[in-house]
Automatic annotation (TrEMBL):
<dbReference type="Pfam" id="PF13371">
    <property type="entry name" value="TPR_9"/>
</dbReference>
<protein>
    <submittedName>
        <fullName>Transglutaminase-like domain-containing protein</fullName>
    </submittedName>
</protein>
<dbReference type="InterPro" id="IPR032698">
    <property type="entry name" value="SirB1_N"/>
</dbReference>
<comment type="similarity">
    <text>Belongs to the UPF0162 family.</text>
</comment>
<feature type="domain" description="Protein SirB1 N-terminal">
    <location>
        <begin position="74"/>
        <end position="199"/>
    </location>
</feature>
<dbReference type="Pfam" id="PF13369">
    <property type="entry name" value="Transglut_core2"/>
</dbReference>
Amino acid sequence: MRPPFPPSPERSAELRRRFAAEARSERPDLSTLCLLVGAEADRELDEAGLDAAQVELDRLAGLLPFRPGGPRAWAVALRELLGERLGFHGTPADYQRLESSLLHEVLQRRRGLPILLSVVWMEVARRAGAPVYGVALPGHFVVGFGPEEEQVLADPFDGGRVLTGADAELLVAGATGTALEPAMLRPADPLEVVLRILNNVRAWAAARPERSDVALWAVELSLLLPSHPARLRYERAQVLVRRGDFVAGAMELEAYAEVVAAVDEAAAERLRGEAAAARAMLN
């Protein structure tokens, strides 16, 4: 399969404008945000492709039985349709593919990372009227159905397997070595989901220095979210310097230093030193 590459600067600017507007809307739409991430990653995903992906989510929702029952019945219905009938699931190899973090590719390949498969589950279930939401367990994203007192969890990466309490505890223990805490089971809002997806993309790019283009767009989209870690500005500066854009990298370092100076002047001074070193690379 061809590796995805970003679109033209003009197309990218338009996608980012739409991404920022959607992220700041009163009710950000998860599928729209994920598909805009996909379009920023893949120059082949045009407007027709964006529409086609939304239509496919609508189609899948139409295949679900009408209001099958309580939370467990919804979880089972999604597992039977998406996991068993249509074969959506993940494999260890999916962690090595950028496509596994792109919603349009996951819809086509029916493979992906836990969080992207969970997006498919959530968006299909939501369209069908299910009480569904994402649950950002440490190291492994799953979906939840129903209110807290009746919550049922399912693991789309494992084909939608319905989880027992012990299963969830094992997932957390395997990822962190710590116990499952009630706060870990709260619903994740759409912007949290998108930031976690972009974190995965940044981690993928960090292991592949030749794809600094991916690292750059992933961190720049993250910075467009209304709430994001301030340190992402430092990461953007580092990527710019690695790509040879020394002036822009130095300017970002200097701007970040001004933010840091309010709480840690020594750290700010180190950042100014890095900015000076980046400018010196021009000589």
